[in-house]
Write a structure and sequence with these properties.
single chain; 194 residues; alpha+beta; six-stranded mixed sheet; four-stranded mixed sheet; 22% helix
């Protein structure tokens, strides 16, 4: 979320804003937060991930979606746009809205300097309340680093870190994998010792 919310708006006003706005907004407790544009590096990583997942999910009951699909988190009331969402089985929509889903199995965020703390902190707190969510993955864009959080029993999450291009993130819940070399294909870092 951006640090400066607009003045209080109703949920319907938010939907009306989103229908005409050129930028996306998160909505939480009557406030809208402009989502900043993403860098070329961010978008390329997202495209790589979507391409990898799309090819592996063919013929399965799971589908991958880009960041234009809005997510409502029922327990907290947050409306947001994850970078990548995977939904298996029947898509559950929010109160008849065909543009807002409520049941992702996997969520992926590519970290940006302005959103990194939020994506790892408060946003993940919201995401953890989703009963359908089995894996949350955050991807650094300034270095080779992916964190996978896997749901365990009794409200526990297991963190698995990946730091080298020869590693592979195995997403068991959807039977897919993300080789880091493919996630970071065509990405160069300032420090080439990655």
């Amino acid at each position: 979320m951006s640090a400066q919310p607009y003045e209080y708006v109703s949920l319907q006003q938010y939907f009306d804003l989103e229908a005409t706005s050129e930028i996306k907004h998160e909505y939480y407790r009557g406030a809208t937060y402009a989502m900043t544009g993403a860098s070329a590096r961010h978008n390329l990583i997202v495209a790589n991930i979507i391409g990898l997942l799309h090819s592996q999910l063919r013929g399965s009951p799971c589908r991958v979606f880009p960041s234009d699909l809005r997510l409502k988190i029922e327990q907290t009331g947050l409306y947001t746009y994850p970078d990548v969402s995977v939904i298996c089985g029947t898509i559950q929509f929010d109160a008849g809205r065909q543009d807002t889903v409520t049941n992702p199995n996997v969520l992926i965020e590519v970290l940006s300097p302005r959103t990194e703390n939020y994506d790892r902190g408060k946003k993940f707190e919201h995401y953890r309340t989703l009963e359908t969510l089995q894996a949350y993955i955050v991807v650094a864009q300034d270095r080779t680093h992916i964190e996978q959080y896997i749901r365990q029993d009794e409200h526990r999450w297991l963190l698995v870190d990946f730091f080298t291009l020869d590693q592979v993130v195995q997403i068991d819940t959807i039977d897919c994998n993300l080789p880091l070399a493919d996630v970071y294909e065509h990405i160069t870092f300032e420090d080439e010792d990655q």
